[in-house]
Protein: 11-beta-hydroxysteroid dehydrogenase type 2
Organism: Takifugu bimaculatus
Amino acid sequence: MMDTYSLPFWIYLLVLAFFLGGAMKKIQTFHMSSIPSLVAWLGATVLLDRLWTLCLPTTLLLMGLLGLSFCLCTFLRTSMTPSLLPAHGKAVFITGCDSGFGKATAQHLDALGFEVFATVLDLSGVGALDLQRTCSPRLTLLQVDITQPQQVQQALLDTKAKLGMNGLWALVNNAGVCVNFGDAELSLMSNYRGCMEVNFFGTLSITKSFLPLLRHSRGRIVTISSPAGDQPFPCLAAYGASKAALNLFINTLRHELRPWGVYVSTILPSSYKTGQSSNQSYWEQQHQQLLQSLPMTLLEDYGEDYVTETKELFQNFASQANPDLSPVVHAIVQALLSPQPQSHYFAGPGVGLMYFLYSYCPFSLNNRFLQKIFMKKKLMPRALREHSGSDLDLSLNNNNEEKLK
């Protein structure tokens, strides 16, 4: 667990101590009237007080010892960790480099000395031109839409021709889209298909095509996924389902490619400003398309104000996302050059805690945590609001009738 979670280990100890302390406090303050008088007469209160008095110092001592052990292990692990492999001469193929993680990674790997093959959707676009301007002649730009098999195969041929006798060290699966926002029932089927086509089938296509090169070089596969593929984020059903399929595929590959000497890693970022996340006109366009495409009965049940609030919450969440992409780029470099790369890298604050709560805490607590950090909705669907209002009116009428009687 120490290697898995990115947050300091003592945070998890504090969470554990909080739950233990809360449980003991509830036991101590339990209403004595519910305890048989004989037990109370035997001094149960005194025993509970003593138990609490002994438990608190013991818990604190345990936390201190575990924290000291963690610090010592971290120091020894850091001092004994082998240095990263050299980047010079290693070739890396990266998808989705028009902007975001892909572009930042391509620039950084080029600066480290990698031979970078960067795919873009538009060779004359701003991202492609910026890569040409800022990177060395080692970087090769390729126009590739990973949902088009012909373009994927052409990219494979171009890469093999450029490499010659040299091998391909790694494939970085970065390309992905999030084309929906809203409840699962409100998300259009085109949203589900669009996310699956790029995030799953496109990545599947590019990975299968380049696997022979990677097996031959005993190289690396690094895939940018999302916590939404493992946890039920509200209003991200289409995106999360595609990432869940991707995660299962990559995890299966990890086992199957181990005998070939190919390391497979997954990067799980927190919230960052990438792609269309800060494009207000994009969100408005998606919003209008959704309103026009929903059946009238469904729109009446949820209400246009409910759909609009969701759009505004997404915009607000995206505006507060981290613009510094370096934690993700750093995790990718570690996965590419570490002699023993990890299977999962949590890139960004809060991701480790999120997975800790998901793995070890009750569903209700994890669900409340996701709602607090992501979608803080205030409106209920219109039909539920009207129904709750009817229930309230009915209860008031019943109370008035009781008083009249």
User: Anything to note?
Assistant: The chain has one domain: 91-375.
